Amino acid sequence: MMTAEHVNAFIDATKDTFSSMCQMKIVPNFKDVKKIDGAIVETDDLMAICGLSGEVKGAVFLACPLNIGKEIVGNFLMEKITEVNCDLMDGFGEIVNILAGAADGKIKNTRIDLALPSVLVGERTRFFAKAGNPFVIIPLRIVDVGPMYIGISMEVKKK
């Protein structure tokens, strides 16, 4: 079962990753958190998702409008991103991979293995949040940039 400790580890890892790797400050909006279970979830134009395995089963994703994704990856790569290209896709995937690895380091007594991230781009991107393993979706605001979301689904295997 996913706990507040798990969610907070991903939030803290996101803040740390964006601060150190993208020079951006993240502010979570816990007031508008959603729990999605057995439903189709609409996301923004750009989404990176990384599967979680090992002692857990689940995934973590980041989603944001395309223009914000270009700014995030531009800061990450220290170059201007003006179009949808391999740099944008690889960079956004790498960011979700880095923050997932950082979250693993913050969660005590649980080993998390990371899958290679997948990156999707396009209007009205949607995915299915399987019943029984819900996603907790937390709106984030990148200060002076705009909105982004993180979604976390994690079932910890019993030891």
Q: What is the compact description of this entry?
A:
33% of the residues lie in helices and 36% in strands.
Distinctive features:
159 residues; alpha+beta; Chemotaxis protein chec; 8-stranded antiparallel β-sheet; two-stranded antiparallel sheet; 3 helices; 10 strands
Major pleated sheet: 8 strands, antiparallel
List the secondary-structure elements in sequence, H or E.
HEEEEEHHEEEEE
CATH topological fold name? Chemotaxis protein chec
Rg over C-alpha atoms, rounded to the nearest angstrom: 15 Å
CATH class: Alpha Beta
Strand content: 35-45%
Q: Domains counted in the coordinates: how many?
A: 1
Number of strands: 10
Overall geometry:
globular
- CATH architectural category: 3-Layer(aba) Sandwich
CATH homologous superfamily classification: CheC-like
Task: Return the structural class.
Answer: alpha+beta
Low-confidence segments: none
User: Helical amount among residues, as a percent range?
Assistant: 25-40%
Residue-averaged pLDDT: 92
